[in-house]
Amino acid sequence: MIVLGTREHGQRRRRALPVMGTTFFKSEWMEAGDDPTLSPTAFLVEQPPDTTLVPHFHRQNQFQLFVDGEGTIGRNPLGPVTVHYAGAYTGYGPLISGASGIKYFTIRPVCESGFVAVADAGDKMVRGPKRHAQSEPITLLTPQALAGLTAVSHEVAIPTAPDGLAASVTRLPPGARHTSAHVPGSQGQFVFVLAGSLIQDGTTLNPWESLFADSGSAEPVLVAGPGGAQVVTMSTPPRDPAYA
């Protein structure tokens, strides 16, 4: 399974979302149905300035990729570009936006909508392992720096775990090809373009656009566009059996 997430699709699927007395915007950039085992999704959330999303949790594992603006999650500062991971039934937050608001992708291997506020969890919270991970800020390369790359390079964002959780940054010179290996144990990998572009089966993926490849399919071959590419790859573990 290869699924693409594109800006065009997100613009067609952008809608206002009432949250806690204010209005967020949500854009569906990647959709793949609602299969309960594997249905990769990625949507962009635009959180208004100086607003708070209360501590909450979801029923599926998820990454968040913070791409614009600033804020905090719990006590941790957020800014572009930061990777955050929260396992299923793991509370996190509050997520507080700064004066210019904050934009972030929510990325899941299994489709899910809505959230459960920790304060209202009651019997909705299921006992099991709780898990957080967050990267250091990722510095975006300028077009000049990308064009000047001469070799593929990598940087760890979230260290690889035995169950398949991992995140890394890859930089590709113009026109370079790189096979993105599946992380053992993972359900698959999301690859987001941070700078430059990728060419995927004739489709150009520009910044914030993405692809998902499940672990049962061939490992994706990343092909940098004419200006090079900087991408972040996020590998998602399967949900813990405690939550079956």
Protein architecture, described:
- With 244 residues, the protein is mostly beta strands.
- It folds into two domains: 2-134, Jelly Rolls (Sandwich); 143-236, Sandwich (Jelly Rolls), CATH 2.60.120.
- Helices cover 5% and strands 50% of the residues.
- It contains two helices and 19 strands.
- The strands form three sheets. Strands 2, 3, 4, 5, 7, 8, 9, 10 and 12 form a nine-stranded antiparallel sheet that branches. Strands 1, 13, 14, 15, 16, 17, 18 and 19 form an eight-stranded antiparallel sheet that branches. A two-stranded antiparallel sheet has the order 6-11.
- The longest helix has 6 residues, at 7-12.
- The chain is globular.
- The two termini are 23 Å apart.
- The mean pLDDT is 93.
CATH class of the largest domain: Mainly Beta
The N- to C-terminal Cα distance equals: 23 Å
Question: What is CATH's topology name of the largest domain?
Answer: Jelly Rolls
Residue runs with pLDDT of under 50 for 5 or more positions: none
Which CATH-level-2 architecture of the largest domain? Answer: Sandwich
Portion of residues in beta strands equals over 45%
How many discrete structural domains? 2
Specify the number of helices: 2
Average pLDDT taken over every residue: 93
Helical fraction equals under 10%
Query: Which structural category fits the helices and strands?
Result: mainly beta
- Shape descriptor reads globular
Q: Describe the main β-sheet briefly.
A: 9 strands, antiparallel
Radius of gyration: 17 Å
